[in-house]
Hints:
By secondary structure, the protein is an alpha/beta fold. The strands form 5 sheets. The chain has an 8-stranded mixed beta sheet with strand order 3-5-4-10-11-12-9-13. Strands 19-20-21-22-23-24-25 form a 7-stranded mixed β-barrel. A 6-stranded mixed beta sheet has the order 6-2-1-7-16-15, covered by helices on one side. The radius of gyration is 26 Å and the shape is elongated.
Amino acid sequence: MTRRPPHRVAVVGAGAAGAFFTLELARLRPDITIDLYDQDSRGPGAGIVMSTDFMEQVRRTFPTAFAVPDTAAGRWDRTLTLCGDEHIWSGAYGTVGLQRRVFHAHVRRLAESTPGVRALRQTVTELPDGPHAPDVVVLADGANSRLRRSRHKEFGTRVTAGRSRYLWASTPIALEPSFVLKDLHPGLLTVHSYPHAADESTFIIEADPTVLATHDLDHRPLPEIEKALAEIFTDTLRGTPLHAQTAGWQPFRTIVNERWHHGRSVLIGDAAHTVHFSTGSGTSLAIDDALCLAGALAEAATVPEAFDTYARTRQPVIEAAQAEAAESAEWFETLCRANRTDGHRTVFALRSRRTLNTFERLRERDPQFVADTVSRLAGGPTTAEPHDVPLALGTLTLTDRIAQTNGPRLRPHELALRTTHGIIHCPVADNTADPDALRAAGARAVGLLLPQDPNPDEPAAEPEDTDAADAAARGFDFLAVPAQPGTGRISRTRRAGRLTATQQTLPVVLLAAEHLSTDEINTLIAAGRADMVAQK
């Protein structure tokens, strides 16, 4: 590798990542020659999404970056969720859908028309070599990057497939931006839909393999699957057809590279990392990668120094984004296996699957939606916060859904509950205890302490409602569920959320592993991740 600033750079792929890298490097270092390799290809997906805030930030440097025809874009500030018979609107705060092929053709033209850029329409199967070999080769050729795959050991590539299957499709109609939760026993078909043109929308269907197999939607020819899905969603699609943009059902594959550069090659965008489509952040992250790498190459004294700066800056950002995307993917995978939904609370859970969206933030930005959610929890109109909504627990009525633990956080021997009769201490016991004996000794309510899930990443082997019904039959009044190890809201409350969603026999108390703010507790209760929270 060269130990001097680069003079010649090759970019493989002219999608968003490759095009914006080319634009930025040519702007910062017009003395560098850039070879931009690309080929006309269809590629998966009909539309892409970005926030208006992000687009405005990019426009400050590249005013025409998003200057596509109005007919190739859709804009919205709220999203519709079709949940059973309910139509629930909630805010989306400035989101834009762009027709993928139009946008990519536009930014490629911008890059190719920049002085110092040579456009080459060809497939690159080996790193350019020879006397005029580039000092840097930027691999911006997407998740299926051939050059990265041929050097997967050098980059330390890991690919993890999700549980659910998805089909990315388009339909020739401008639909409302929406989520559709279609009950198709034994689970749900979940749709992510948004307009990306005046007469076309993206329509992504996600499902558990068991649901697909049950309804013979998995191994049929693709045209038959398209037709069957169009019939299932005929009301939403208003009779329009579906056109698959992927080869069939497939799991979402999360790509992680331990090392983002090797020799003179460097990864950006989907070639470096993927994030689940439910976060809508893949294109924005790719553009940020591109701008960061171009800036590092423009400023550093040597190519290795630039690569190190780039990786040091972007890898922590992507690790955080992938962790959040994993939480979002898990939430949808669990939803696809659900046997019931709960209107506004399900939609609130959808919105709050991302850590940023807490109860207070959503109430500030979308007060009517949050008020309706809390009213759903309370069984009628209320001004109370979720933790103040009364809860029946055995013969007691709680006036506050925040309890205090006595004993170890995750294995307390009793909880202090605020009730209409004042503070009452209730024992928490394991499966060997006799609730009747504890009640005879003076306990007003008895909780069953569940062990931590030994396989938290696996679906429950037995129905959770069976465990709750058995505990109720034995005389327990609530389930005490320890928080799971994890970094996000979904992973930490995995088992408590599953129990709260799948059974209504006993209240579920989440035993917090650390002190939680009232805002976080309100978020968990409103989202149905727990009925109440106990902490030190």
